[in-house]
Amino acid sequence: MISFSVVIPTYKRHNFLKRALTNVLLQESNISEVLVVDDEKSEKCKEIVNKFKNNSHKISVKYFQNKSSQGEYFAKNWVMQHATGEYIAFLDDDDFWSKDYLKNIENYIKNNLDAGIFVSNYFNYVDENKCENGKIIPASFIINDYLIHNPGMLQSNIIVKKEAFDHVGGFDTSIPCADKDFFLKINLANFKYVFIKERNVYYQIHGGRYSQNYYKLLKSKIIFYKKYFKYYSINEHYRFLKFYLKLILYLIRSKLKKLV
To answer: pTM for the whole thing?
Structure first.
């Protein structure tokens, strides 16, 4: 029987966390445990998780505090020592899945037992009145698709075999936005990648998203560029420089608007 460990990092998003936990406990699949990693270290968060824990008789819900204050990627690497599932399903606290998401993944796993990572298409979700298709994720892995932009590798739409996660050493905590990097590491280590066309993941769109923090995004792009420098062709170096300059100009214009 295929088993999943669901990992939910959270930070000061109590209402979103309640939605995420409710959603996970409705999944029609075999979940070994739900591991909630709290970056806030608050009693409120602990109370929320314990309430779900007490009301869940089929799935083990566990609360962990990220006492290191080194961020969500460190927290996810650290909590993996407690994961018992054969497959790891990551879910950001503000995202959610359709109730048959993991059941659908199971069918793909049964037909691809040698695969290390499964990536699903997703929706961009604002509210119940506004929900649109997310980015078009490539059906096969070609590294050039990832050197400049991220074509849709989040955390909430990734299922990874624990064996593959351990093999690559988890997330690179030196990169502020390590989702795409993690996906690349798995593929470059020659683990099979399976693309799932169905859209069963809902990516919450709001101002608190990391992608809205352009200073951190710029830093992340520079670190990523240095790490994967050898994979860039002359044309891709040019494309990256063009993107880099556009982002800097955007930041300058934003700064000037605030001063006016």
So the answer is: 0.90
